[in-house]
Amino acid sequence: MRILFTGGSGKAGRHVAPMLAEAGHRVLNADLVPLNDRRVDDLRVDLTDAGQVYGALHSYAGLDELTLGAGQPRFDAVVHFAALARILIAPDGETYRVNTQSTYNVIEAATRLGVPKVIFASSETTYGICFADGERLPEYLPVDEDHPTVPEDAYAMSKVANEACARGFQRRTGLDIYGLRINNVIEPHEYARDFPGYVAKPERRLRNIFGYIDVRDLGRMVLRCLEVDGLGYEVFNVANDDTSVGTETRALLERFYPGVPERGELGRFETLYSNAKARRMLGFEPVHGWRDEVGAPS
């Protein structure tokens, strides 16, 4: 497939965009700074500028495409990861503006130009827990995609607005638009650096609902989204199968979530940020776990 990937120079994108290229796809990274990876072409784009977004979606993916002599090929998919990645990078109003305007521009241009599939990064923060002022408990556990999304911070508000935008464009066009409510993204080098501390003090992971997603498994999730057609508009939690701490799930429930209703039986270390929908509808199967990386008992 020929893919426009936005935000390919960010924490997640710099891993996922090359993974798509390694899988055989042609990837053009649209970002303010280049990725500088030989497998991925770069195009400097301000995604808050609608004209630049339309131009990017009409672009050649590289100089080699000129040799075809057949004009500019159409993109088969857009993977939209670009964003201000959390609160307190920019003032709240700017965070909301950049994230919502860029997403509107990308999805509008993609759907008007007939790109058949858009995959966009939403967030675990939509459930209102990660960046809450004080502690907010889930309404039930494990948290699945039916859980209410009532955030109180600008970043998560922008992600909820983006989901509404995507759903509206999908309803109008009938194209496939999939949103990924991505849990805390972990790069391979972060396991040895951070996870022993999480084992020692599991409360540090409370705001992430004790979940995580290995960036390589996030790439696997994007590949599954590219491969599975015909779902229309869907949102998916994206998390690894287990928690990010050494404490057993039952003990986490008793210590941190007393009185929170439980839906279904949970395994010994099973994630509280449910990935069951992605498994069921996409065949998503994470393969990278922190216990293997750190050598913790399972």
Automatic annotation (TrEMBL):
InterPro entries: Epimerase_deHydtase, NAD(P)-bd_dom_sf
Residues of the NAD-dependent epimerase/dehydratase domain: 3-239
Pfam families with a match to the protein in the record: Epimerase
PANTHER family: NUCLEOSIDE-DIPHOSPHATE-SUGAR EPIMERASE (PTHR43103), PUTATIVE-RELATED (PTHR43103:SF6)
Protein name: Nucleoside-diphosphate-sugar epimerase
The species this protein was found in: Citreimonas salinaria
